[in-house]
Write a structure and sequence with these properties.
The chain has 1 helix and 2 strands, in the order E-E-H. With 56 residues, the protein is α+β, with helices and mostly antiparallel strands. It has a two-stranded antiparallel sheet. A hairpin with an 8-residue loop joins strand 1 and strand 2.
Amino acid sequence: MEHSGGRNGYSARWHATFSTRTPSHLIAATAAALADPTPVPRYEAEIPSATSPRSV
């Protein structure tokens, strides 16, 4: 199973690959972490200006 993310035009990307030998609890934990709606703290310099709340 393969997953990737990030919007086109942005350098923020992630990629994960799970094989058939990956324990299901690790896949579940990864899915839960990715689906968690809690905001991720970031330094202002790490936020692209196009998506910065200050650019609105």
